[in-house]
Amino acid sequence: MSSNSDLGWGTEPEQETTHHVHHPDIGQKVVLxxxxxxxxxxxxxxxxRASTMFADMFNLSYTKSEDxxxxxxxxxxxxxxxxxxxxxxxxxxxxxxxxxxxxxxLPPSNFEDTAALLNLCYQFDVRxxxxxxxxxxxxxxxxxxxxNLLQWASQNNNREVGQVALxxxxxxxxxxxxELSAENFWTRIQSLESRWGMRILSxxxxxxxxxxxEYAVMREFTSKKGRPYTKYVMEAQAEAMFPLVQGDFGKxxxxxxxxxx
Length: 261
Prior knowledge:
This is BTB domain-containing protein. Strands 1-5-3-4-2 form a five-stranded mixed sheet. Strands 6-7 form a two-stranded antiparallel sheet. It has eleven helices and seven strands. Strand 6 and strand 7 form a beta hairpin. 38% of the residues lie in helices and 18% in strands. The protein is elongated, with a radius of gyration of 27 Å.
């Protein structure tokens, strides 16, 4: 188990800006501090019920029982120190809101914050009931930016989400990227985990074939009056080519989440 210092323990709560709702005022609360310095007071029972990692931090066993007071009282936790969380105040607030209610409701959010929220849930091993709607929201947001969704899936080795991202692409999106994206094709491929990049390229591209490509090449010429000059001309050169696989792009990824690769 990580030491207290590894987890960012040790910040005094009263030295931080406090959230107006999640205020560390009374009761058995733990203070979580965002990377922007805002403090959030959270009932210790909400944290340990929602997250096995928090339960381990507090030396408590996870249980669905409503009678948690005796467990907490018999395992006292020093609430005078805060826990630093590497997340923005907005993301941390969404995280707390999601774990303190029985049926999480997510407010409208952008792709980046939703991805950060889901990463935070995975980091703290939060219950699947909390993760499911966040994951669904990320996939919905990813419909309009499938390359961002694919990159997130690759970073987290989540083939199910990766398949959703690829099926939301067309050949045009695959080659050109998400709308307003300035990254070129190979930069996007290189941003993927290596096995993912190889799997995607081997599926979308046919094997190498001999072909020709025309290039603009500068050549020297002599005019009729004997004066040298240069100009660009198009010349064909032999190349090894990797043609795109023919067919519907979305259908190429059937089995992507289950294949052995």
